[in-house]
């Protein structure tokens, strides 16, 4: 595929976060189906989704997307811009609300379709719960509902997160994250995709623009994420989400816990769960076989919900 032609527009949230946004129109010679809001996972950025944007345009959607605060081309919180850092996930809620009001609302009538991955899918679920009918339907790729603790007992991960934050080290790297600088990684070290070509394409994008890269989160980010995941998985939370939701889980996920996605989907009033058993975490960056199955489920879901 050719490089994405990106003409960014910057917007500012009420709290002062500067967000890089972009809109990609549907083909001019076909009736537009509506707007698809595309939301990325942690460490990701607009350019990484060039192939996905093209596939959505081929389905006659206009695509609106942006970089969350602290990543991609949006403003960063810390001097070391490789760190993902946030105090509370309500800050991400503000990002999405501002984006919907300033960018999405002016270009589309009616509730948009949502397509979101991992952390973006988690934040989208928060909006579906707190602001019903904001979206007409949403498709989620490997949503961040329960993070893997990489072999550590869950109680130990919670304890060390609390200790590091209460001892004033909330802005420090989570253990091992500094070494995950994407410009220093080999394909064999990655745990998100089995597709070497798509992995390399992302590396090439970062090499051209290293300022948009992230390595991993701080202890404060992890504290905020843990609190938000507990909230979203709590009793009554998914049961209150009225929007049709498709959840696609990755059977070989090493980032988030697939079993949590299965459980969550069962609790949704209008939820559907599909598992791609041979997929690593980044379903949309996986090999052609996996991606073809994802798009088949996506197309059936959007057709059944007339969006």
Q: Which CATH architecture is right?
A: 3-Layer(aba) Sandwich
Largest sheet: 8 strands, mixed
* CATH class label: Alpha Beta
Fourth-tier CATH superfamily name? Alpha/Beta hydrolase fold, catalytic domain
Report the average pLDDT across residues.
95
Backbone shape: globular
Strand elements, count: 10
Instruction: Tell me the CATH topology.
Output: Rossmann fold
Q: Segments where pLDDT lies below 50 for 5+ residues? A: none
Explain what the structure shows.
The protein has a single domain, classed as Rossmann fold (3-Layer(aba) Sandwich). Helices cover 34% and strands 16% of the residues. The protein contains eight helices and ten strands. The protein has helices spanning 50-58, 90-104, 119-130, 154-166, 196-208, 219-232, 258-267, 288-304; strands at 9-12, 18-24, 34-39, 61-66, 83-84, 113-117, 137-141, 216-217, 245-250, 271-276. The strands form two sheets. The protein has an eight-stranded mixed sheet with strand order 1-2-4-3-6-7-9-10, with helices on both faces. A two-stranded parallel ribbon has the order 5-8. Helix 1 links the parallel strand 3 and strand 4.
Brief rundown of the structure:
The protein has helices at 50-58, 90-104, 119-130, 154-166, 196-208, 219-232, 258-267, 288-304; strands spanning 9-12, 18-24, 34-39, 61-66, 83-84, 113-117, 137-141, 216-217, 245-250, 271-276. With 307 residues, it is of the alpha/beta class.
């Amino acid at each position: 595929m050719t490089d994405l032609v990106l003409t960014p527009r910057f917007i500012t949230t009420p709290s002062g976060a500067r967000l890089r946004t972009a809109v990609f129109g549907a083909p001019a010679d076909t009736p537009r189906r509506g707007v698809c809001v595309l939301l990325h996972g942690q460490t990701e950025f607009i350019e990484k989704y060039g192939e996905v944007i093209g596939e959505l345009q081929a389905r006659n959607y206009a695509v609106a997307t942006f970089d969350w605060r602290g990543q991609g081309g949006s403003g960063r919180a810390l001097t070391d811009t490789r760190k993902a850092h946030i105090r509370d996930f309500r800050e991400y809620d503000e990002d999405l609300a501002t984006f919907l009001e300033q960018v999405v609302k002016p270009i589309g009538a009616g509730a948009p379709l949502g397509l979101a991955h991992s952390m973006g899918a988690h934040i989208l679920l928060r909006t579906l719960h707190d602001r019903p009918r904001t979206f007409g339907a949403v498709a989620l790729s490997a949503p961040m509902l329960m993070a893997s603790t990489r072999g550590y007992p869950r109680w130990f991960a919670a304890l060390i997160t609390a200790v590091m934050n209460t001892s004033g080290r909330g802005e420090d790297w989570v253990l091992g994250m500094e070494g995950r600088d994407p410009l220093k990684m080999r394909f064999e070290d990655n745990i998100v995709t089995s597709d070497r070509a798509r992995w390399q394409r992302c590396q090439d994008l970062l090499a051209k623009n290293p300022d948009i890269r992230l390595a991993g989160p701080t202890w404060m980010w992890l504290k905020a994420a843990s609190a938000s995941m507990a909230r979203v998985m709590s009793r009554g939370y998914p049961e209150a989400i009225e929007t049709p939701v498709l959840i696609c889980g990755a059977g070989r996920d090493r980032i988030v816990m697939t079993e949590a996605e299965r459980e969550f989907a069962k609790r949704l009033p209008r939820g559907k769960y599909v598992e791609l058993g041979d997929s690593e975490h980044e379903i949309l960056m996986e090999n052609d076989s996996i991606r073809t199955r994802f798009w088949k489920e996506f197309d059936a879901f959007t057709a059944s919900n007339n969006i």
